[in-house]
Amino acid sequence: MSDSRKYDILVWGATSFTGTRLVEYLALNSPLGTRVALGGRNKSKLEGVKQNLAAKHADVAIDIGTMDIVVGDSADLVRLREIVAQTKVVASTVGPYTVYGSELVRACVAEGADYCDITGEFPWVKQMHRELNDEAVRNNVHIASMCGFDCIPADLGCFMLAQYARDELNQPLQHVKGSIVGVRGGVSGGTLTTMVNQISVEKKLLWRKLKSMLRPSSAARGSTSRGANVSGKNFQRGVIHYDETLQRWQTFWIMSMVNSQTAGWAGRILNYGPGFSYAESMSARNLIHAIGIAVGLLYGLILMMFGLTRNILYALKIVPRPGEGPSEEFTRRGFFSLHLEAFTASGVVYGKVSGTSDPGYGETITYMGESALCLAFDRDETFKPGVYPPSVTMGAALLRRLRNKGCQFDLGRAPIPAVGVASEQGSKKKQ
What we know:
By secondary structure, the protein is of the alpha/beta class. Helices cover 47% and strands 18% of the residues.
């Protein structure tokens, strides 16, 4: 892509809770001379973001002050094309993307601007792929969706395991099981709004998951023993099941729906192995805790589905409204750890992806910021044009960037202990 464009990165939705933090991340972590612009509908609010960040970070106040502001509306394709024609990369934080994202992606594909976002709206991403992938390939445009906690850990985790299995065992992957063994994080009002919108789209898939809670499979009591010959039937686990490797009960994890679809899609494109699949769950203390998590999650989702109950939750401040989110202190105290167990025809390899801040608003900002920087400065012949998950678009280049920023993507021939989460939090409190 030509460097003649005015901006390297345009943050679209810079006044949103996540957008403001992304601007802050880029101001503090971009290479010297990176040209960043703030985009959105309200000029005065965009100016306010610049002023607040400049006051907060005096050491980069001059850099923040030089960031331009561009104003437009997500529904105005003509204006959007004028805007994105000025930038190499658009980093969008404006959701729900099903409602506000389509015209922006169309504009990027038409004008030759690369793009990344943090959506977890898998059906929308596949819709954009069906509609725009051929044109994006012709225009050599890279559209990388799902560059946040949805779905970087699962997506890049399976990517690194597929490479590792071929290098260590000279075998393709059959299946990867992911287990969230520790997590602490908040949620923003914007994320909740997107989640409610997404549930209405994927209600059939959610219903199948809920029914399977009542009908665990015969394989629910454990996973394949290490090194044994494995087959597809070994991967059919109930939503609530016992994991022999972790020796813990597993329960439904809300992000498993989008993560399993995304990692499976990437695996087919990148040829991880014939019939490759990914499944994800969350560890619980015991069976009662596992059932309680699943029931509580279901109850909360039902309350958020209806306007009356949702407004009551807003009024009682049980959940945040759009534009609200966790504090910086809460974000710093967050963490997550994802255990990965990858099966080949005759062996098992292991991985762990972990983070030391709020997964949705600490790690996600790092993932998104580095994705935008990767598209802006690292593009080479290994990048795949089209509308794809981040592992397909950027692969090894993005994985290398994230590791260099301290994000943990570990590999081994034996299970990797989920150690350090508690100690990491303790050390943070002392700082």
